[in-house]
Amino acid sequence: MTFSFSIALVWLDLAGVFFFAVSGSLLAARRQFDIVGSLLLASVVGLGGGVIRDIIINAGPPAAFTNPAYLAPPLLAAVLVYFLFSSVERFTSLLILFDAGGLALFCITGTLKALGAGMHPVPAVLLGVTTAVGGGLLRDITANEVPQLFDPKDIYALPAFAGAALTVLLSVTGTFNVVTAGAVAAVVFAFRVTAWRRHWHAPLAVRGWHRLGLDPADSGPRD
Fold first, then answer.
1. In 3D, which of 93, 13, 78 has the Cα closest to residue 50?
2. Taking Cα atoms as reference points, which of 191, 43, 164 lies closest to residue 106?
3. CA proximity to 192, closest of 132, 109, 145
4. Helix (H) or strand (E) holding 220
């Protein structure tokens, strides 16, 4: 990777940290955590996926602990939520939107870092997905929520799989650039939000099983 591309990758990573961090602070607000809890949850979700990624590819100390710039997005997210988001009714929809933004960016940056570390395209896709869903998983577990990753009434990992696979395809064909990266992020974001609003879900582990508490007539968009 060229120096300029490395810088662009860092900015994409920081943007992903910010989006995920806002989702963490919004969840903290919904659970009525204090400002310290909001900052800590924002840090967990914003930095968790990247820390997992850097440890797996053996990149040395994770970027979150070597680059002070990574500490700014969680702090900014906690401050913004504290001052700007006073409508509790909107927390769920905003959380999903910011989470989808982080998912879209992290599946790209995680995959690119894996490829840059010399990983085969297939495990690079898996690491991209791990980077994308890792922070959200830690967020939900820390806040004692049902992890979105394991919610049978929602789709969470599939958009990240799609984004990581598209990133690999574009990279190996030499067509990955700013425009195509933006297109991939938009596809992942739209996939995740549409799946949430339209109640899309994957088949259960055993054919013929039915989802408890899921009303087939409830097909309208969520708030």
1. 13
2. 164
3. 132
4. none
d(CA 166, CA 159): 11
Q: What is the pLDDT along the chain (223 residues), one digit of tens a residue?
A: 443 567 778 888 999 999 999 999 999 998 889 999 999 999 999 999 999 999 999 888 888 888 899 999 999 999 999 988 776 556 678 899 999 999 999 999 999 999 999 999 999 999 999 999 999 999 999 998 888 888 888 899 999 999 999 999 999 999 998 899 999 999 999 999 999 999 888 887 787 777 665 544 444 445 4
The CA-atom distances, in angstroms, between 92 and each of 8, 27, 195, 212, 217 are 31, 8, 15, 22, 22
Cα gap 62→150, rounded to integer Å = 27
pTM of the predicted model over 0.70: yes
Closest to 150 (Cα-Cα) out of 110, 201, 208, 193: 201
Query: Measured between alpha carbons, how far is 27 from 44 in angstroms, rounded to an integer?
Result: 12
Cα 52 → chain centroid: 13
| Interatomic CA distance for residues 124 and 167, integer angstroms | 10
Residue 219 to residue 198: CA distance in whole angstroms: 7
Q: Which pair of structure tokens corresponds to residue 25?
A: 């602070």
Rounded Cα distance, 201 and 80, in Å = 32
The Cα–Cα gap between 28 and 32 comes to: 6
Per-residue tokens: 53: 């990624």
